[in-house]
Write a structure and sequence with these properties.
CATH class: Alpha Beta
Radius of gyration: 15 Å
CATH superfamily: 2,3-Dihydroxybiphenyl 1,2-Dioxygenase, domain 1
Oligomer: single chain
CATH architecture: Roll
Length: 127
């Protein structure tokens, strides 16, 4: 594998209520997710300009996508300071399970939260 390629290039967050989940992520990250149906699933895509080696993903509602707190842990980019997005989590219907916590000076900070669908996810930022 080319050393310049991200080992992860796509993620999917399972949801049971697309409208609720879309509103939650749009609120906490101040973004717009574009919806479409594909292969029998409802999807809402996170913004992605010129993907060239960058990671993106979507919210997905379908028979093979079941939300849960114990699945893979996704770390959303909370730069420059995850406090901005994390501060919106509970008002948007989520629950913070680990507040902003320093990893170390080189790596930065992390936090865990449960989204409106019951998924356990995380954020990371340098500051």
């Amino acid at each position: 594998m080319d050393g310049n390629v991200n080992i992860i290039n796509w993620f999917e967050v399972s949801v049971s209520d697309m409208a609720r989940a879309k509103k939650f992520y749009e609120t906490i990250f101040s973004i717009t997710l574009n919806e479409m149906e594909m292969m029998g699933m409802k999807m809402a895509f996170f913004p992605a300009e010129n993907m060239n080696g960058k990671i993106s993903g979507a919210l997905v509602q379908g028979p093979m996508h079941k939300p849960g707190a114990d699945g893979a842990k996704l770390y959303f980019n909370g730069n420059p300071d995850l406090d901005a997005a994390l501060g919106k989590v509970e008002a948007a219907g989520g629950k913070i399970t680990m507040p902003k916590t320093k990893i170390n000076d080189q790596v930065g900070y992390m936090a865990f939260f449960i989204d409106t669908e019951g998924n356990g996810v995380a954020m990371h930022s340098s500051n």
